[in-house]
Specification:
It contains four helices and no strands. By secondary structure, it is mainly alpha-helical. It has one domain. It is globular.
């Protein structure tokens, strides 16, 4: 049985996935805003695609780097959060969109790290 969730459920589930990223993923610590924006976009989009079984292995080197991180993250999500295994693709997409928003906030827009915007760093 596939399930979707309401907005409150999406937020709660996204919080679980974001918490996993913050505790276990080193890729969130790039030193520049543009690096963080790109990595968040690429890794989390590919993770969503993998979870929805829409992803194809990329051929470009940089894309492959993001893809490997996405594969590892998707495997960990499936193993540690069994509720994701019974969600439909629309539910997964909604949760992953919220994950992206929250990760962007924590690692970029809400970050107090001044090095992110220091042009001399």
């Amino acid at each position: 049985m596939e399930t979707t969730v309401d907005a409150t459920g999406v937020d709660a589930q996204a919080d679980q996935l974001v918490n996993f990223i913050m505790k276990n993923c080193l890729w969130q610590f790039h030193s520049r805003t543009w690096d963080r924006e790109r990595q968040n976009r690429e890794i989390l989009t590919m993770t969503k695609e993998i979870l929805c079984e829409e992803n194809k292995e990329p051929t470009e080197r940089l894309d492959r780097c993001y893809w490997v991180d996405a594969v590892v993250l998707a495997r960990n999500y499936r193993r540690n959060f069994p509720w994701i295994n019974v969600m439909d693709n629309a539910g997964i997409a909604a949760v992953m969109q919220r994950v992206r928003e929250k990760v962007d906030y924590q690692t970029i827009t809400g970050s107090l790290n001044k090095e992110l915007t220091d042009e001399h760093y």
